[in-house]
Specification:
99 residues; mainly alpha; globular
Length: 99
Amino acid sequence: MLTAAQSRATENNDMHNDSLPPTGFVRLRQIIGDRRANPPIPPIFPVSASTWWAGVRAGIYPPPVKLGARCTAWRVEDIRILIELIDPAARAIGEERAE
């Protein structure tokens, strides 16, 4: 059963799945969004930072990669896998585009 946050994420994933680069890393504000940025960054997963980090500790979300002393990011491939786990329809869309 999906949580409310995962249900909202499912709605956003189709739109934002294309906005992810094919490979590389994304920072937390690219994942959870940042309304204060100019222009605002829409969320892929509309949860708070504390909820995201709690999910990382619980194993719900993928572990981060430390790129430096004060730079934490997530592999794009891990975020795409998470999207597919939450929304199986995203997997079908990805397979159609690969053909």
